[in-house]
């Protein structure tokens, strides 16, 4: 059962990584316009720095 | 983006720039957000729309940046010095409808702190739930002694901070309702969260078999999802619909001595002299002192036929001056004007409508006491039977967890989200949370005529009735006037090149005259041309005379709103009563009713009469949906069981109504009724599902046979079933 000492921190670490990614996405306004972002890849206009 | 577009827009003379600038600064909204304009785009839906809209706006001089948000169907434009009135036509030329939204009101929702806060709590509780579940599965599969205790301790270390953080919305709301002396849904939720955490810590310390850390965190997660859906539906509706602002700002041109000044309408006093330009809205009640013109009263009375205005006549605020400039002496302004009296009527009607109790409130009212009684009853029962406090508290906590309204908390928001999402795609915005449920009960639909079933714009009935040799003359004459009938005539004759006329003069209140190859031409009212007209005709008419020929009658009709015929036909086919109430003359109303197949119609009704007619229907037991756009409909809109207005409606009408139609088409109205019924059925089904799970699981809990595994299963399966059932609604349109 010593393996638990490794496995449990690993599972918590992976979960925390997911949580941090979610918080980052939230702060970076990734959920502002999901539908528009999906459609924009079809547009051929160069849009390197999209305005907020 | 090229650098050239950053150049400030410069007018020809400084004064030309300064005058509108001063006017803009006077406007509070513009002064606060001088650069940002937000337009609503009801029919944008694809990548091509984004490219076209952004391209058209960027090509317009003065626009620095334009960004479409397709999810919210709006475009944010950074254009210093431009107003929505400049940009709406630009988009119209690109083939897209647009309406102005108030950036101030949207600023609150753009930052939407409450929504992000909820999302953050969902994320944290979701993370905690996943990790605790991994540990719980091990315990359920038979971890023993020290391993189980270790897993429980780790679970607790994750769960306790999570419950403290993610449970805050529930604790706060429960505390508020307790202080107000009520038992809301959040009281049993908070109780379950606190009790489950406390019991679990105690059991873990005693090295017990059952800990409910997973249940407590799962409870938080599912309930927060429901809370978030509810919040989002409301936020979208509030930000978009409530703040669709009217394009015209209430201002008046005051004549003091020889100088004319632009002042806010609120500053007008009785006795002031004001000038109203052709095409302008009359800002206050008054008597005409100088000038001849025609007045469009459609928004106040529903009449499509303009009324002639001459010195001595009394005009009301809200009417539109059509052809000639007028000077008015103000008789009543602000609080005393007829516009303000109508607003007061709306307030009275809103009070009369009373408060609607939603399905969720009714469910909570019965549910919340029942849960407390059950939990407390099983605590007392087990205490009396065994005398074991620890066991009794354990069982009471299990009952609270099992009965906790996870599915109930999701039942309504999930349905509301998918239903309003589907209606939004069809071009209907829901402003009020309970509007969907009220819409489902509707059995009678009352329509206004002008501006609702019709577009409020006249159209030449039969262009072929004009002889070919007169067409260039008629076109040229019609171009000389801003009168709606002239504009309709010019539009109908667009294909004919206009003749070159001499001495083209507009006679306000009468018509237009000109000379052509030595002959007198006249286009205008029958009396002016000296012919007798049929006053009871269903159509509007204008006459065209050419010297030496008998005058020619031109018939105009109000063009039908697209989808109106379809909408009425579907409502009638579904067995709903359809009533037409109009302030217009009997003949056109009868003609329209006949063409749409409406048998119940009333003409010549004033605003009070409309509200009374709606109230009479309500008293007779009918649930009325009122569809209207004008000031004369406002009181009736507020009085009806549920109300709807097109986006082209006046500000006051949109504020008074529960739903706003964002497109031109009226067809979504009939569909909305169907979707609303479906939604209410789904809500009831969801209540039945979550109630069913409780009926099965609660006996286990009361009998002391509930395990954390059973609690977790009941909770997650019922929540997922309820959500899936709600999602069936948003699926493919039939």
From TrEMBL, chain A:
Pfam families: FixS. It comes from the Bacteria. InterPro entries: Cyt_oxidase_maturation_cbb3. Residues 33-52 are annotated as: Disordered. Keywords: Membrane, Transmembrane, Transmembrane helix. The chain crosses the membrane at residues 6-26. This is Cbb3-type cytochrome oxidase assembly protein CcoS. It comes from Paracoccus hibiscisoli.
From TrEMBL, chain B:
Its EC number is 3.6.3.3. GO terms for cellular component: plasma membrane. It comes from the Bacteria. Residues 35-99 form the HMA domain. Its main location: membrane. It is a multi-pass membrane protein. It is an enzyme of class 3 (hydrolase). GO terms for biological process: copper ion homeostasis. Keywords: ATP-binding, Cell membrane, Hydrolase, Ion transport, Magnesium, Membrane, Metal-binding, Nucleotide-binding, Phosphoprotein, Translocase, Transmembrane, Transmembrane helix, Transport. GO terms for molecular function: ATP binding; ATP hydrolysis activity; copper ion binding; P-type divalent copper transporter activity. It is found in: Cell membrane. The chain crosses the membrane at residues 118-141, 153-175, 187-205, 211-229, 366-385, 391-416, 687-703. Belongs to the cation transport ATPase (P-type) (TC 3.A.3) family. Type IB subfamily. NCBIfam families: ATPase-IB1_Cu, ATPase-IB2_Cd, ATPase-IB_hvy, ATPase_P-type. This is Cadmium-translocating P-type ATPase. The gene is cadA.
């Amino acid at each position: 059962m010593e393996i638990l000492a490794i496995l449990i921190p690993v599972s918590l670490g992976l979960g925390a990584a997911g949580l941090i990614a979610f918080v980052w996405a939230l702060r970076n306004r990734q959920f502002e316009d999901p539908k528009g972002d999906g459609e924009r890849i079809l547009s051929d206009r160069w849009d390197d720095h999209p305005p907020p | 983006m090229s650098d050239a577009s950053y150049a400030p827009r410069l007018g020809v003379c400084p004064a030309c720039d300064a005058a509108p600038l001063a006017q803009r600064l006077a406007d509070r909204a513009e002064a606060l957000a001088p650069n940002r304009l937000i337009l609503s785009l009801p029919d944008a839906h694809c990548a091509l729309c984004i490219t076209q809209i952004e391209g058209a706006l960027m090509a317009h001089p003065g626009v620095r940046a334009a960004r479409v948000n397709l999810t919210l169907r709006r475009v944010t434009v950074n254009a210093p010095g431009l107003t929505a009135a400049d940009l709406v036509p630009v988009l119209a030329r690109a083939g897209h409808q647009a309406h102005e939204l108030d950036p101030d009101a949207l600023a609150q929702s753009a930052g939407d702190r409450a929504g992000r806060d909820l999302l953050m709590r969902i994320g944290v509780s979701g993370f905690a739930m996943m990790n605790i579940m991994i540990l719980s599965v091990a315990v359920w599969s038979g971890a023993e002694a020290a391993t189980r205790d270790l897993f429980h301790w780790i679970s607790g270390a994750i769960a306790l901070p999570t419950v403290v953080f993610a449970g805050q919305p529930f604790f706060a709301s429960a505390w508020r309702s307790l202080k107000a002396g009520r038992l809301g849904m959040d009281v049993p939720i908070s109780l379950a969260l606190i009790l489950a955490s406390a019991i679990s810590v105690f059991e873990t310390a005693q090295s017990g078999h059952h800990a409910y850390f997973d249940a407590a965190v799962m409870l938080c997660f599912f309930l927060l999802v429901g809370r978030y859906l509810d919040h989002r539906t409301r936020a979208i509706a509030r930000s978009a619909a409530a703040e669709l602002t009217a394009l015209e700002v209430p201002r008046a041109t005051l004549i003091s001595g020889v100088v004319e000044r632009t002042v806010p309408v609120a500053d007008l006093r009785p006795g002031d002299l004001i000038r109203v330009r052709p095409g302008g809205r009359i800002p206050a009640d008054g008597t005409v002192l100088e000038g001849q013109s025609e007045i469009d009263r459609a928004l106040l009375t529903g009449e499509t036929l303009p009324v002639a205005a001459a010195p001595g006549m009394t005009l009301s605020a809200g009417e539109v001056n059509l052809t000639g400039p007028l000077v008015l002496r103000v008789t009543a302004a602000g609080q005393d004007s007829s516009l303000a009296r109508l607003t007061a009527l709306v307030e009275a009607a809103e009070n009369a409508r009373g408060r609607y109790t939603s399905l969720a409130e009714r469910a909570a009212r019965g549910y919340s006491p029942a849960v407390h009684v059950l939990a407390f009853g099983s605590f007392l029962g087990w205490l009396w039977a065994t005398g074991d406090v620890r066991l009794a508290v354990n069982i009471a906590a299990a009952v609270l967890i099992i009965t906790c309204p996870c599915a109930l908390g999701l039942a309504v928001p999930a349905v509301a989200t998918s239903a309003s999402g589907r209606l939004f795609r069809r071009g209907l915005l829901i402003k009020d949370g309970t509007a969907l449920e009220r819409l489902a009960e509707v059995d009678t639909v009352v329509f206004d005529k002008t501006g609702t079933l019709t577009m409020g714009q006249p159209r030449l009935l039969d262009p072929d009735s004009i002889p070919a040799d007169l067409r260039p003359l008629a076109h040229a004459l019609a171009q000389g006037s801003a009168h709606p009938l002239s504009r309709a005539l010019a539009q109908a004759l667009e294909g004919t090149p206009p003749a070159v006329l001499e001495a083209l003069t507009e006679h306000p209140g009468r018509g237009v005259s000109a000379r052509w190859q030595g002959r007198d031409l006249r286009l205008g009212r029958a009396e002016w041309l000296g012919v007798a007209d049929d006053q009871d005709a269903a159509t509007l008419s204008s006459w065209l005379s050419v010297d030496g020929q008998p005058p020619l009658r031109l018939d105009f009709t109000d063009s039908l709103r697209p989808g109106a015929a379809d909408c009425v036909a579907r409502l009638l086919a579904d067995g709903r009563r359809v009533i037409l109430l109009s302030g217009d003359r009997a003949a056109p109303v009868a003609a329209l009713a006949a063409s749409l197949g409406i048998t119940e119609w009333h003409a010549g009704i004033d605003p009070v009469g409309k509200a009374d007619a709606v109230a009479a229907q309500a008293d007779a037991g009918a649930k009325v949906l009122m569809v209207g756009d004008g000031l004369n409909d406002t009181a009736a809109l507020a009085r009806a069981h549920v109300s709807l207005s097109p986006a082209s409606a006046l500000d006051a009408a949109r504020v008074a109504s529960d739903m706003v139609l964002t497109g031109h088409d009226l067809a979504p109205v009939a569909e909305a009724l169907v979707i609303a019924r479906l939604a209410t059925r789904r809500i009831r089904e969801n209540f039945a599902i979550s109630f069913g799970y409780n009926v099965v699981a609660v006996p286990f809990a009361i009998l002391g046979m509930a395990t954390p595994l059973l609690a977790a299963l009941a909770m997650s399966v019922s929540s997922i079933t309820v959500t899936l059932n709600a999602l069936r609604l948003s699926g493919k349109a039939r």
